[in-house]
Amino acid sequence: MSKADKIKNFDPNSPGDPNSNIYGLPFTCEEAEIVIVPIPWDVTVSYSDGTSKGPDAIFEASFQVDLYEPMLKDAWKIGVAMEDVSPVIRKKATALRRDAKKYIRAFTNGKVNKEAKVILEKVNKGSEWLNAEVKAKVLHWMNKGKLVALLGGDHSTPFGMMQALAEKYPSFGILQIDAHADLRVAFEGFTYSHASIMYNALTIPQVSKLVQVGIRDYCQQENELIHANKERVKTFFDRDLKHENYLGKSWAEQVDVIVAQLPKHVYISFDIDGLDPKLCPNTGTPVAGGFEFEQAAYLIQKVAQSGKKIIAFDLNEVSPGKDEWDANVGARMLFRMCNMMALSNEKI
Hints:
By secondary structure, the chain is of the alpha/beta class. 41% of the residues lie in helices and 14% in strands. It has an 8-stranded parallel sheet, with helices on both faces. Helix 3 packs antiparallel against helix 4 (114-142) and helix 9 (251-260) packs across helix 10 (293-305). The longest helix is centred in the middle third of the chain and has 29 residues, at 114-142. It is globular.
């Protein structure tokens, strides 16, 4: 059946078919305009793991999301589809997480001996392997003319995607929604730690600007790096944004200032812990404060409406708990981000 026939025969008001692709949509990755690449990886997390289960949990929760988008008539027709989760990545992630835990125990106890150093090297090489896998997957779909989203996993997972974008765009900016600055240098010894993703992103020459929003947990070293790179890094700290609110400045006014900092081409990196932790209580490193769902969604919407182009995005650090609450929130944010990326690329 052709994509046109699938659209003709699909009822967007019916319950999601669990045998379909994400959100109950009938499209394959070849047919969809937007392809979601799931990466079940949380090897280097420093507090609690579980984000490797995020892609599966979000996929399952997606069938509870209604497809009506008030801003965009029949947005579902553009086609969104998710790749199957790679069993190779999943298996490697599970094995390396066991190794990483051994190393973290040694590091925490101040006993980084020869054996621990061997483990560290193994984990770092495994992360390099993942970066190459992600880059290849993203380039595969981009070369087919698809818009691509990455679904983690922890926040280390999109580095390969950023490398892929660097081959497609001579210059682009990153909008980071996050509780953490993620500017640590090889945190705990892991070169590609989830806490080092933006430090590593800044090693990519094509990344012209990093705009961080909602940051509320960071160390002195990160603060110094931010202030030493004022032309390339602009950070909107959660505390400052809240204090401006208390003094009468609206979120709409603040968003205008944030969006103005971004260049023409924008990659959005969304760590779910950028939200208020009541919306993501099981995420790996929750921090008090943060955004309401619609606050974050409004920011992304304004980027899409600004004339700037959302070239790709990631959503990461969703860790399911005993219920599907975190995954439900993640599935809804993912859907909104897909629609806004489509809008900014005039796919609708």
